[in-house]
Amino acid sequence: MARRTFVDRSQCSRSTIFPGVDVHAAAGEQMMLSFVEIQPNAVVETHSHPHEQVGMVIRGRAVFRVGDEEKVLGPGEMYFIPGGVEHRVEALEEGCQALDVFHPVRDEYL
């Protein structure tokens, strides 16, 4: 995907990373922003990646497990996931939308 200064979500790449979990992503040279939509009760299964990840829930609620910590997050709450740390997310009954920033860019999403 060509990197742009201004990006509409319709211009982003789109990936279904787990059943009921869609990611729309755009990237600069060294970081990437993704809009994540998790359907009600859908799960981002336990995984890890070398990328640092920070994010914020913007709608709905989900149970986040990062390493040995677990917390239900809702709109306006943020999270930090260091590279290499296992994590899992399960949307609650209303589903969840979040924004994620990755460094470096996750090329598999583009």
Gross CATH architecture: Sandwich
User: Radius of gyration in whole Å, from Cα?
Assistant: 13 Å
By DSSP (H or I, 4+ residues per run), the number of helices equals 0
Largest sheet: 8 strands, antiparallel
GO molecular function: oxalate decarboxylase activity
Enzyme class: lyase
Organism: Maioricimonas rarisocia
EC number: 4.1.1.2
Description:
With 110 residues, the protein is mainly β. The chain has a single domain, classed as Jelly Rolls, CATH 2.60.120.10. The protein has no helices and 8 strands. Strands 1, 2, 3, 4, 5, 6, 7 and 8 form an 8-stranded antiparallel sheet that branches. It is globular, with a radius of gyration of 13 Å. The chain starts with 12 loop residues before the first strand and ends in a 7-residue tail after the last strand. Its EC number is 4.1.1.2.
Which descriptors would you attach to this protein?
mainly beta, 110 residues, RmlC_Cupin_sf, eight-stranded antiparallel β-sheet, 8 strands, single chain, Oxalate decarboxylase OxdC, Jelly Rolls
In short:
By secondary structure, the protein is an all-beta fold. The protein is built from no helices and 8 strands.
SSE map:
Elements: E1 13-18, E2 21-27, E3 32-38, E4 43-47, E5 52-66, E6 69-73, E7 78-81, E8 87-103
Antiparallel strand pairs: 1-2, 2-3, 3-8, 4-8, 5-6, 5-7, 5-8
